[in-house]
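tool_call: predict_structure(chain=1)
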Amino acid sequence: MSTAAGAAGAAGAAGTGLASAQEATAPPAPPRIDTRVVINGQPHALQLEPRASLLDVLREQLGLTGAKKGCDHGQCGACTVHLDGRRVASCLTLGVKTDGCAVTTIEGIAAPDGTLHPMQQAFVDHDALQCGYCTPGQVMAAIACVREGHATSEAQIREYMSGNLCRCGAYAGILEAIRDAAPRMRAETEAMEGRRHA
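tool_result:
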């Protein structure tokens, strides 16, 4: 009995000692890095852990949960946002790499009065939503697809939207939505350019 109790006590002491040793040798947390970024038109001064992804910063630190965490490996497109106007997989983008940049998420594309972006409205009009989990990433990719000039044919749209996966069959609606929204987006861009040069 005393042998068993002694062994248990020794094991416990050894375990405690091991835990203490691990705590003593654990590497210190990396210093946070000051990062200034404009998100949806609002400036933010952030202190970011250097390994934090932009997706986690948006969702966990800023409460912008529109960009979805799907595969977390840059393969499904659910986390697509715009970085200085170009689409990126935010799960593969380090938050600190956005220093000095402008980030736009799905929360930032509607007009200030709440009017939906033409692409958002087209998704509604063409029932391109389905379960909706992939929708924010699809909309952001679709906007980029038009702006990049890759929405001039059905085949081209399919090619440039191929990085955004839908698992519930909304592809046909998404294609129609992009074809519908593209001319309206171009018209708005031309009108904006006209006002700028007037």
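agent: Confidence is low (pLDDT under 50) at residues 1-5. Proceeding to next step.
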